[in-house]
Amino acid sequence: MRGLAAVAVVAAFVTACSTALETSTTGDEQSTSSTGVTIPDDTEHGIVSGVVDGDTVQMTIDEESMDVALAGVRAPQGEECYAEAARLALAQLTAGRSVAVWGTGTDEDGTPLRYLMIDDDDRIFVNLELVDLGAAAALHGHEFAGDFLRVNAGAYASGRGMWGTFACGHPEGGITPDRPALRIDTVNIPDPATTERASVEIVNASYTEIAIGGWTMRDAGSPPGFTFPPRVMLTPGDVASVALGCAGDDDSGLAWCVDTDSWVANGTTIIVQDQQGNVIERHVYEVSATP
């Protein structure tokens, strides 16, 4: 929701960067060869009548109207930066079009979670396309997570959509040449048999101080996360840590606590955002099958 400039950027990407998927049919299944996606032969088909937000559409399937949430992604919501641009990207991809719909499960609001494929010659995998445009973040823990995270990495590296350096506006101090050199340095996941807490460490890798007061660090798929206290400064080389699953009154020095440990339970994408909502750093963490 950052005005016409952000909307125009998304519109341009929707036009120029579509991931149209080539398809081939073998036996009882239809595959999208460029991503290895297999669409069940008995999948449902419907018409998208509108969009609710950047990752939820209104559909008609078998003459029944319903909301459908896109599986495997999360777009900015409500008052979050880039929410309106993400909604527009989804609308331009899907509104009024016939789509193949498959998948199971529901989100926390009980809305069906599904994968959508444009059901015509374009054959666009909508969920993945939003990630490629930078209009949604890829989530972990689903059947296409590997492809989604790979495409998300490309969108972030290219600064597309919400990953743009100033996608959410310039800092209060004015225009700067690029993102501050803040890095998520370490994600500590202790052995479950110990009482040690999981934690995330960030380091100031620049040659100047960075004011991180009011910045947030969170799982890209589940805000709000942790907000750094006002007037916190990191000098060059400083390391700040946020422990997970502890009370905030344990805060001291450059170490803080947040009362959830869900960020690293099943793998996550951790992001750091400035006060405007610009993404300063992104770190993908996957839980190993063997500690």
Structure described in brief:
The chain is of the alpha+beta class and 291 residues long. 16% of the residues lie in helices and 34% in strands.
Question: Key features?
Answer:
single chain, 291 residues, alpha+beta, OB fold (Dihydrolipoamide Acetyltransferase, E2P), Immunoglobulin-like, 2 domains, five-stranded mixed β-barrel, four-stranded mixed beta sheet, globular, disordered N terminus
Counted by DSSP, the helix tally is: 4
CATH first level of the largest domain: which class? Mainly Beta
Beta-strand percentage? 25-35%
Tally of domains: 2
Largest beta-sheet characterization = 5 strands, mixed, barrel
Q: What separation lies between the terminal Cα atoms?
A: 42 Å
**Helical content, roughly?**
10-25%
CATH architecture of the largest domain: Beta Barrel
* Strand order in space, largest sheet: 4-5-6-9-8
The SSE order reads HEEEEEEEHEEHEHEEEEEEEEEE
Kindly provide the radius of gyration, computed on alpha-carbon positions and rounded to a whole number of angstroms: 20 Å
Overall shape: globular
Mean pLDDT comes to 82
Find the structural class using helix and strand composition. alpha+beta
CATH third-tier fold name of the largest domain = OB fold (Dihydrolipoamide Acetyltransferase, E2P)
Which blocks of ≥5 consecutive residues have pLDDT under 50?
1-34
Description:
With 291 residues, this protein is an alpha+beta fold. It folds into two domains: 3-163, OB fold (Dihydrolipoamide Acetyltransferase, E2P) (Beta Barrel); 182-285, Lamin Tail domain (Immunoglobulin-like). It is built from four helices and 20 strands. The protein has helices at 3-16, 83-94, 126-133, 145-158, and strands at residues 23-26, 29-32, 37-39, 44-53, 56-61, 64-70, 73-74, 98-102, 113-118, 137-138, 182-188, 199-204, 210-211, 216-219, 222-227, 233-234, 239-244, 255-258, 268-273, 279-285. The strands form six sheets. The protein has a five-stranded mixed β-barrel with strand order 4-5-6-9-8. The radius of gyration is 20 Å and the shape is globular.
